[in-house]
Design a protein that fits this description.
The chain is mainly alpha-helical. It is built from four helices and two strands; from the N terminus they run αααββα. The chain has a two-stranded antiparallel sheet. It is elongated, with a radius of gyration of 16 Å. The relative contact order is 0.14.
């Protein structure tokens, strides 16, 4: 039996958070819903907030002033650069993999 796994099932939560914040600032619940919508992955609170803390510690995202007890975050310039570089690497890897599938054994 062949098991097919979507690439998004193996995606790094940090990458998913950065992709979500590339659209604009979001608080935790909005991040969770957006990631579910575009990646089909549900991040639990521990995973999400652990990821947020790591990204914030690395200077890739920053907290904004709280809004009605919600704490929004936004992508920093360094975060946007890191995200762009990671997505370009992923695109290059995908392109190479697809080319190799066209010429390789099946």
């Amino acid at each position: 039996m062949v098991h097919s796994m979507a690439l998004s099932e193996r995606s790094d939560p940090s990458l998913l958070v950065l992709v979500s914040l590339a659209e604009g600032p979001k608080h935790g619940y909005a991040l969770t819903k957006d990631i579910e919508a575009f990646a089909g992955i549900s991040l639990g609170p521990g995973t999400l907030y652990g990821c947020i803390a790591r990204l914030e510690g690395r200077g890739l995202i920053e907290a904004l002033p709280a809004e009605d007890r919600r704490n929004p975050y936004r992508l920093t310039a360094a975060g946007a650069t890191a995200l762009r570089e990671e997505l370009e690497r992923a695109a290059a890897t995908s392109a190479l993999g697809l080319r190799r599938l066209e010429v390789g054994p099946v």
